[in-house]
Amino acid sequence: MTDIQIRTQGHAGHITLTRPKALNALTWDMCLAAEKALDAWASDDAIALVILDADGDRAFCAGGDIAEMYRTGTAGDLDYGRRFWRDEYRMNAKLAEYPKPIVSFLHGFVMGGGVGLGGHCSHRIVGETTQISMPEVGIGFVPDVGGTYVLARAPGRLGEYLGLTAARMGPGDAIHAGFADRFHPQADWPALKQALIDTGDIAALGVAPTPPDSPLAAQQPEIDALFGGEALRDVLNTLRNSDSEIAQKALKSMSRNAPLSMAVTLEMIHRLRTPSLSIRKALELEYRVSHRIMEHGDFLEGIRAAIIDKDKSPKWRHALDQVPLIDVAKMLMPLGKDSLDFKENTMQIGFIGLGNMGAPMAANLAKAGHSVKGFDVAGAQAEGVTQVSSAAEAAQGSEIVITMLPNGEILKSVAAEILPAMDKDAIHLDCSTVDVASARMVAEEATAKGVEALDAPVSGGVGGAAGGTLTFMVGGSDAAFARALPLFDIMGQKAVHCGPSGNGQAAKICNNMILGVTMIATCEAFALADKLGLSREAMFDVVSTSSGYSWSMNAYCPAPGVGPKSPADNDYQPGFAADLMLKDLRLSQQAATDADADTPLGQAAMELYKQFVEDEDGKGRDFSAMLPRFEKRGRG
C-alpha cells in the first residue's frame, strides 16, 4: 500500500504514513493495515517496541479522509461510515492498551484521526512544528477517535475549551494539556528513532529537554472560569459577559462551529470526567454519536461546506443559543445491539463454487469466525461452511458473496441468479479467472441493481488457497475494496487494488501470460543445458542468481531435485495445471485481440500449451511438465 509503509527494523516495528500531499489523512485501508501490523507485533518476541511517524514536513496526520464518507452518506449509505468508525475506534483502543511501548513522533498538524493514531501511545513526542487540535465541531462532528478521553482528563476546563473552540496547541500546550509527553527538537528525531531501532529499549530516548512554555498553562485560571458552565448556553453567556481577549476570541471561534456538535461535546466531556474513565468508555460514547451523526446531525453539511463546495457557509440545524437538550440526549442514547463492542468484524458471507480453490478459501473464512453459507453444483462442501441448496440462497442476506467459477459464461449465469437476491450495497466478489469483458459486464449489472462489484482473480494455486497465502488482483471501487480487505487478509498474503472493474482480470491475465512464456523458456533452457552437458544443478545455481532469474526458475523450478520443492518433485502432479495455464493464455490472447495489442510470445505460448494439453500428455499435469516434453524432442 502506497499510503502507509509498514516494516520491521532491528528491534522495532515501524509504521510510517506516506500521504504527505494529503497531509497524511487516514483512510480506512490505512487503519486496517496499521491494526494488522500491531496485532502481529504484539506477540512477536523479536519486536520490542513500535515507532509511528509520517512523511512530509507539514503534518503527522491532519485527520481522517472524510470525502468518501460524504459521498456514501449523501447517497444514503450510512453503514460505510459506521463500519469505518468501528474499525478505527477498535484500532484506537489497541493503541492505548498495547502491551509494548509505542513511540509516536508528532510533527506539524496533528488533528482528529491523527490524535487517534498518535495520541494514545505510551510515548508521544512533539517538536517545534507541532500543532495539535480536535477541530471536529467545525465540520458538524464531535471530538472522536478517543479524543474525548484526552479532553476529559485535561487539567481544569481545558477539555471544554479545546473541544468547543478547536484551538491549536503548540508543543508546550500539548504537553500541558495531556496530548503529548515529551519535547525533542526535530533535528534529533532521526537519531532517536535509530537508537530505538538498534536497542529496542525505550531508555534510548534519554532525558527529554525542557519543553517550550505553555500559553495555556498561563491562561488556565481564566479558561477554567469561562468554561465552567453546565450546558452550552451557560458557557456562551459567560463568554459574552467577559470582555477579555480570551473570551472574545473563543466566542468568535464558537460562532462558526456547529451548535449541536458543541452541545454534545460538552455533555460528553462532563459524563466522562469520572474516576472510572477508560479509553473504551470514551470510544463507546463517541460511537453513539458517530452512528447517528450523518442522519441526525450536521456532519454531511459540515463536510460539504468545508471540503466539497468550500463555501465556508454551513447551514447548521440549530442556532447557537437554541440547541434543545432533548437533541443532545438523543445523540448520546445507548445503541443497544449496534453498540461498539470492539470485536473484529464478522460478516455474513455467501460462497459459490467450492472446488479445489474455493473450498479451502471458504474454510479459512469460516475458521476466522465469519458466518459462511456455501453452494456448489457438484455438492462439494467446505469445513465450517453451512451448505445451502442454491446460489440464490447463499446470496440472500450476505454482506459479501464470493464466486469461484470456471469461466465467464458460468459467471454471467450465476450473476443473473444471485444479483436479484442480494441486498443493496452488498458486494459481489468474484475470484474466478475470466475474460475482462465478462468481468466488466457483470460489474455493470451489479451496479444497476445497487450491488458493489469486485473482480479479484487469485495467484497462488491450491497450496496458497489452503495456506491463506494467495495474492489477489482486484478491480472495483475504493470503498468496496476497503470493505473486502479484511477478507483478503484472511484468504491471502497480499491484495493489490488495480483500479476500476475489470482491471483485476487484466492484471491476472497479463501476469499469467508472463508466467506461461517464462516457464516455456525455463523448460527449453533446461532441455538445452542437458544436451550441452551442463548439469541441472549448475544450471540452477547460475541462472537463479543471474540475469535469467525468474519465479519459474527460483520458486517453481521445473527440474526435479533442483531448487525448492515443486510439482516437478511429485511427478508433475499439478499445483497449477497445464489446462488452467492454457485457459489463462487464451484469455490473454482474447484480450489482446479486443485491445489490438501485438503479443507474439503470448500467442506462441498459447499454441504450445494447446498442443501440450490437447494433442500430447499435458492434460491433468502441472504446467511445468513442459520440461519432460522438451527433453524428448529434437530440433526438427
UniProtKB/TrEMBL annotation:
Any one GO MF annotation of this record: NAD binding
Pfam families: ECH_2, NAD_binding_11, NAD_binding_2
Origin species: Antarctobacter heliothermus
This protein's encoding gene: mmsB
Keywords, sorted A to Z: Branched-chain amino acid catabolism, NAD, Oxidoreductase
Record's keyword annotation contains NAD: yes
InterPro entries the UniProt entry points to: 3-OH-isobutyrate_DH-rel_CS, 6-PGluconate_DH-like_C_sf, 6PGD_dom2, 6PGDH_NADP-bd, ClpP/crotonase-like_dom_sf, ECH_dom, HIBADH, HIBADH-like_NADP-bd
EC main group: oxidoreductase
PROSITE patterns in alphabetical order: 3_HYDROXYISOBUT_DH (PS00895)
Pathway recorded for this protein: Amino-acid degradation; L-valine degradation
A Gene Ontology biological process term: L-valine catabolic process
NCBIfam families recorded: HIBADH, PRK05617.1
Every Enoyl-CoA hydratase/isomerase domain range: 13-330
Domain 3-hydroxyisobutyrate dehydrogenase-like NAD-binding residue range list: 502-627
Domain 6-phosphogluconate dehydrogenase NADP-binding, chain residue ranges per copy: 348-499
Domain of life: Bacteria
UniProt name for this protein: 3-hydroxyisobutyrate dehydrogenase
